[in-house]
Write a structure and sequence with these properties.
- By secondary structure, the protein is an alpha+beta fold.
- It is built from twelve helices and ten strands.
- Strand 3 and strand 4 form a beta hairpin.
- It is elongated.
Amino acid sequence: MTNDAEFIKMRENEWKENNKEVALYGSRFSDVHLLYPCSFSELSEEVKVQIGDSEKLKSSEEIFHVTEKEEDICDFFLDKMKEYNNSELIGEFTRNIVRKNLGIHEIVIQYGNVKLKERGIIYYSRHISANVGMVSVVLPFTSIPASLLLTALCAGVLMVVDANGKDCFLQEWINKKQISIQGSPKAVVFENDDVSKEEIIKCLACEYEPMSEINGKTFCEWYEENFAQYSLAKVHASDSCLYYEIAEKEKPLKERLNQQAVEMFFVELLLMQEAAINLVCNKVYAHLNEETENKKKNSQETLFELSKEAANAVLFVNYKNLRYPTVRISARKIAQRFGIDEDMEKYYKCREVLEQMIGIKASENDSIDNRLMNMLLLILTMLQVLPTLSQVVYMLLTKSVQLTMCVSVLFGTMGCVILYIIYRLCYYAKIRKNEERLFGKRRKRK
């Protein structure tokens, strides 16, 4: 196994050789994590085979050269993610996460007429019960400027070399594994080199070649604000990028990954939260459109199942479950900058729509029950009135009036009227109850 200095030199020479036609500037040795919030369907046998094939690439040299050091770092990193998740979080819900290594792959960026290539580790994190998570591409020791990687990430033009040795867009490659992107991708950059303010702002803006110098007030404020709670790094954040200026720049790779796992486990939860909210909202509006366009009524069971899923969608970000104040402070700040608060507003609006759909469906079911009950009451009333009517007909035919018969007819008629009044009062009370169920929570929130 080569030491870190030799490993860095090998990667630097390799990158220069592969990309000698283009002169790039910026960071030389960043550790970059490219993150996609996503949801999972039940993996078919075919997809399981594909994932198994990608695992084999770790020890294969058919597609590209893999070093011994790279084979080991992903499993080490995922073990550390699990360790910090279990030790720094309270509760079982957030421990129900599995992380799987999808192998080492060659990441490709088309820059002009030149293809820039860098080896990266791809893994996914998946919450079993919620079926959401993230797909992450880890590029340790990447010598491609971080701002160029982030530009490609936001533009959706990152590519990966597939098992057939062909370039494939990364998002398409992810979709082929029955994994759907939910929300916008994010990036975390751990900078191991000295870079300028201009380069950091370009990373926060995810623009490698902006039209001119970026001097907007918001980006300047984002650069000046430091989220770090320790002196190990300065931390800047935009709505798409978390940028760490590492103070100690000569740490070995595994030490860096150990430190990064401390930061990444709650970023993982934030992306799961975003994915869960997007998934639920998309399902709710899809059901609403089905009823609007196709006049297809959703079953009560479907809506209640969706309501249960919606209730679980906001369990990922509970700051009180973080054991330490420093982590809680960092998580709140990063969540706000990543737009989780806006996602929560979107969630509550979507939840209102879902509650109305459930209320309307319940009203429709009640209406059907009421019609059946009305029919039954009508039949019972007719059965009760028939003897009275027969007595009236008998009196008219015989022209004889008996006091007992008149009293019987009177009380029978009064009984029918009283039953009808009770029915109408119950009917209107049920309508008022349904209206309160549908609109009471909305008025309360306002």
